[in-house]
């Protein structure tokens, strides 16, 4: 089936909605440019314990064995 142009006309309501969405997206882009990048924890070494915590957990592990 071939696509025909001009079969469907966009209503005035649809045009207004599209313009509102474009303005919303433009505002969202501007806000994102002004704000700092979100912290995603990528690259962090959160799996490693704190230095003093390692000492404590090591002592507990030795006591259990």
Largest sheet: none
Query: Taking all residues together, what is the mean pLDDT?
Result: 77
Q: What's the total count of β strands?
A: 0
Cα distance spanning the termini:
74 Å
- Spatial extent as radius of gyration: 28 Å
* Class per helix and strand makeup: mainly alpha
What percent of residues are in strands?
A: under 5%
> What would the principal axes of the Cα set say about the shape?
elongated
Instruction: State the low-pLDDT regions, or none.
Output: none
Helix percent reads 55-70%
From the structure provided, what is the oligomeric state, counting identical versus distinct chains? single chain
Note the total helix count. 2
Helix and strand pattern: HH
Describe this structure in words.
- With 65 residues, this protein is an all-alpha fold.
- It has a domain at 11-36.
- The protein contains two helices and no strands.
- It starts with 11 loop residues before the first helix and ends with a helix.
């Amino acid at each position: 089936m071939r696509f025909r142009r001009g079969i469907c006309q966009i209503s005035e309501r649809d045009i207004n909605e599209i313009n509102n969405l474009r303005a919303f997206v433009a505002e969202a882009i501007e806000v994102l440019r002004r704000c700092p990048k979100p912290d995603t924890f990528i690259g962090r070494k959160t799996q490693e314990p704190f230095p003093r915590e390692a000492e404590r957990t090591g002592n507990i592990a030795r006591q259990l064995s």
